[in-house]
Each structure stands twice: as C-alpha cells, then as structure tokens.
Structure to design on (392 residues):
C-alpha cells in the first residue's frame, strides 16, 4: 500500500477501515478512515496516526516514501485512540522522534501510554519550524476532547483539522471532488450530530479562528480532504454550530400496537399542512445516530412513546438519553403517545425533552386506539397550534 501525495512532498499515509460499522455507538454504514499525513522537510513530520489495527497499513504507506525510523516529529492533534493508536509503534521505531501536542494532549498521552517519550508542547499561537516550513497550532478544546488542537501549515495553506470537518467514509478517493458532494456533506452532518454537536460554543470559537487563516486544503482525520468545496463545508459548519435550523421536524417514536404510530402519522399530516418538512423515524428500526443527523438541521423534535409497565419504551428512553447528552440548542419539543390506563410514557418523554432544554409544546395523548375522529383532532391541533417563533 502506497502513500498518496496531496501536495509536493506531503502525503496521505492513513488507514482505511472498510469494515467499521459502529464507532462507539455511532452507526457507520460507509466505514471510515483514520488519516495520517507525512510532511517531508528537514524534519520529517507525521501528523496524527491511525487506530491500532491499521498501524501496519500506515507503516507500509510511510515506507513507500521514507524509512519510518527517520521520522523526527509526530504531531498528535488528539489523544483519542483512533488517532493515537499508532503512536507506540512509531515511537518505538523512530527512537529519536518527539511527540508534538497541546499541554492537555501531553497529559492525556502520558496517561494513556505511560511512556517516557520526548514531548514538544505547543499552545495556540505557537509554532514549530521543520525546515522550509512551519507548523502553527490552534487549540480547539472539546472538538472533540479537551486536548484537541489543529495544525496549520501556512506555506502550503493546509489545515490539519483532526476530528473537525471529518466524515466516516471509507473510500479510495481522497478528495471532496472525487466523491458525490451530497454524500460527503451528509456524512459530515452525521459526524457533526453524533460527535461534535454538544460542543457548539467551542466550534463557534474554532470557526472564528479558522476563518482568519488562508486555507487551500482542509485535511481532517476522517474521510475525504476538502479542496474544491471548502466554502461549502465551512458554510454548513457555521449553520450547524450556530443552531440555524430549517423549518423541519423530526418525529421519532416507537409503537406497540400501532396506536402511537397512527398518532405520529396524524402529527406529520398536521405539520405538512403548515409547510413544515417532516422526517419520521421508528426508533425500533432506525439507529439513533441516523435520527441525530436530522436533528442537526431540524427546529422541531417531536418524540412519541406508548406506556408499557408504567414507563416509556426502552428504545425511546435510549434515544432521549443520547439526545440529552448531545444537547442540541434552540429546539422545540413535543411528546405524544397512546396508553391504556396510566399514560406515564408520554409524560416521561415530555420530561426527557424538557431536560434537553427544549421549548415544550403541550403533550398529545390518546387512550388505546385513536379512531378516525381522534386522529383528525390530532392533525388539526398540530396544523393550527401556535409554534414558538412562528412558522418560517
Ligand atoms: Fe476521531 Fe475524537 O476521534
């Protein structure tokens, strides 16, 4: 396996994880890559490594350019093991190399690997000369861990952005103009919704810093490299980070005997009548990470559960826990659900959505099976109820 040159003397030397289908709970039907980059200069520099099981692949790609033992610096933009998993092998081979990391990165790597490596610690605004080029560092804490930073190569206008702007796509194509753009943007949105969303305020700060740079390539640590559609991905990140949603609704529910499903359909009809675009998901058949992709751009998040054993259904509880942890802001929520006698399921959904900080609409409940008349009432109510901020 060979390196791919992305600029003169700068190579992609990552690993392709074709079979990845779950990334710590996030469904990844397209697999992923762990991107590492080799900069050939007076000081040979590797930017990030790969997950442990693809280290041999990375070493093979590096060896197609240079003997890995000659590496001088390994920049670790992020401690998480999908990017640092190859560090122990590289540092064993390149015995004179130093690890370049943020202060939190140094601490995290020491706590992960407990090795007496040489560290070069850099903070925002600090640089490191590697010969004819310089590395400049910007700390981006919480995108995705406290240790994160991005590395900018001004002479080449390359931003090594690590998790930011990444997408879980396994492909032989390396650049955004080599794959259909819709796929890359959708996967970037899914990545944002499931990995980055809870850190929106930190993303806003990072975006402001990134906008001051002259960028010709954004080289993230997952998926394709942005070169032809940099403005597009920055525009989307701006929208997602600043919670600018569309006039659309996620209706996520689960059902026992189709009554809550019928209510979901009636609510969808009501929303469609007022021009709100609907994305409807049965949580028993759709993975929560796919639902989150749509939450990123939806103003309304309506969640339904019947009542079982005086509780909401477990798949709905799981979705609410996931949603709360990812904490999207400025959303409007509504609970609904059918029940036989207690009706606690919909109440618990309401409480769960309120805990997310959503502006809540009145809960809609139905006893046993909603008949046609009851469904008409639900549709009419959804079509006419006042919505916070009004329809757009
Ligand atoms: Fe791709 Fe936060 O690791």
């Amino acid at each position: 396996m060979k390196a791919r040159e992305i600029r003169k003397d700068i190579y992609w030397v990552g690993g392709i994880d074709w079979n990845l289908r779950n990334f710590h709970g996030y469904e990844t039907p397209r697999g992923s890559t762990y991107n590492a980059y080799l900069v050939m200069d007076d000081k040979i520099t590797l930017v990030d490594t790969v997950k442990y099981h693809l280290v041999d692949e990375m070493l093979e790609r590096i060896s197609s350019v240079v003997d890995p033992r000659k590496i001088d610096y390994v920049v670790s933009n992020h401690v998480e093991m999908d990017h640092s998993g190859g560090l122990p092998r590289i540092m064993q081979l390149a015995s004179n190399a130093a690890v370049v990391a943020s202060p939190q990165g140094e601490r995290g790597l020491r706590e992960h690997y407990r090795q007496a490596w040489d560290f070069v610690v850099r903070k925002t605004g600090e640089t490191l000369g590697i010969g004819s080029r310089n590395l400049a560092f910007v700390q981006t804490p919480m995108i995705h861990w406290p240790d994160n930073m991005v590395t900018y190569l001004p002479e080449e206008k390359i931003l090594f952005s690590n998790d930011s702007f990444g997408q879980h796509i396994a492909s032989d194509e390396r650049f955004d103009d080599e794959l259909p753009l819709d796929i890359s943007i959708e996967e970037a949105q899914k990545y944002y919704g499931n990995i980055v969303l809870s850190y929106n305020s930190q993303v806003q700060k990072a975006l402001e810093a990134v906008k001051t740079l002259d960028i010709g390539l954004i080289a993230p640590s997952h998926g394709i490299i942005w070169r032809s559609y940099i403005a597009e991905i920055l525009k989307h990140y701006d929208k997602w980070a600043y919670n600018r949603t569309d006039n659309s609704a996620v209706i996520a529910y689960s059902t026992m005997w189709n009554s809550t499903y019928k209510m979901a359909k009636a609510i969808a009809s009501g929303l469609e009548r007022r021009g709100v675009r609907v994305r409807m998901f049965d949580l028993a058949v759709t993975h929560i990470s796919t639902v989150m992709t749509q939450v990123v751009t939806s103003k309304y998040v309506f969640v339904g559960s019947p009542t079982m054993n005086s509780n909401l259904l477990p798949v709905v509880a799981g979705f609410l826990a996931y949603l709360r942890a990812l904490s999207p802001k400025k959303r409007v929520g509504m609970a609904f659900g059918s029940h036989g006698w207690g009706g606690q399921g919909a109440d618990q959904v309401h409480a769960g959505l309120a805990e997310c900080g959503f502006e809540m609409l009145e809960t809609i409940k139905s006893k046993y099976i909603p008949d046609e008349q009851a469904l008409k009432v639900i549709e009419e109510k959804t079509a006419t109820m006042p919505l916070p901020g009004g329809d757009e």
The domain at 4-241 is CATH 3.60.15.10 (Metallo-beta-lactamase; Chain A). The chain has a mean pLDDT of 97. The first strand starts at residue 4 and ends at 7.
